[in-house]
Amino acid sequence: MLRYIAFADDLSAWFGKMFAWGILIMAFGVGYEVVARYLFRAPTPWAFDLSYMLYGTIFMMAGAYTLSRDGHVRGDFIYRLWKPRTQARLELVLYFIFFFPGITALVFSGWKYAARSWGYLEVSSNSPAGVPIFQFKAVIVAAGILLFLQGVAQVFRCILCIRTGEWPKQAEDVEELEKVLLETKSLDVLKSEDEGFLPSRELDAGREPRDRDAQ
């Protein structure tokens, strides 16, 4: 199970990071459109199609990557209070009740949708440029398959957690700067207290240093 989890995580990460480069393409396309429209009065007929197709592609292809990093939004105000085994049991049930049926429906429905689009080489109706969009419909199927494979890895994580009482370690990844700064600040405060220095929050509040030996 651990080998499959590592395989699925690596696969999801590869696709997620590869398609993340689409953000740069989308930014350049939208930037070019702004300059052409407002400086040269020559709007492009393709920028709108490029932006929404790339945004949709990035959003879909990042789904499995986000799932592998446990990055999807969850209402965890109760969940986080439970023991890991209880969390794993709940997630295991929910994966089979909601996740896999939904993803399976996405793959089969997306396949029909994409096949129809490829059948007549669909182009965009939103602009006179006739931008081809049939190839982007295949992203629905690809994203669904990646999510299904990653979902199996998440089920294995739940099983391992039920057995051991601890969640398997997630793959290390890039952290948001805000989170890193908050964690760094917390560690600096704890270190200062351990070394007998006065934390900055107490100096700012004008409080006297705490006597660490007085109890």
TrEMBL record:
Transmembrane segments: 21-40, 52-71, 92-114, 134-160
Residue span, Tripartite ATP-independent periplasmic transporters DctQ component domain: 26-159
InterPro entries reported in the protein's UniProt record: DctQ, TRAP_DctQ
Key words, A-Z: Cell inner membrane, Cell membrane, Membrane, Transmembrane, Transmembrane helix, Transport
Pfam family, one: DctQ
Subcellular location: Cell inner membrane
Membrane topology: Multi-pass membrane protein
Protein family per UniProt: Belongs to the TRAP transporter small permease family.
Function: Part of the tripartite ATP-independent periplasmic (TRAP) transport system.
Quaternary state and interactors: The complex comprises the extracytoplasmic solute receptor protein and the two transmembrane proteins.
PANTHER family assigned to the protein according to its UniProt record, in alphabetical order: 2,3-DIKETO-L-GULONATE TRAP TRANSPORTER SMALL PERMEASE PROTEIN YIAM, SLL1102 PROTEIN
Protein name: TRAP transporter small permease protein
Originating species: Rhizobium aouanii
Upper taxonomic lineage: Bacteria, Pseudomonadati, Pseudomonadota, Alphaproteobacteria, Hyphomicrobiales
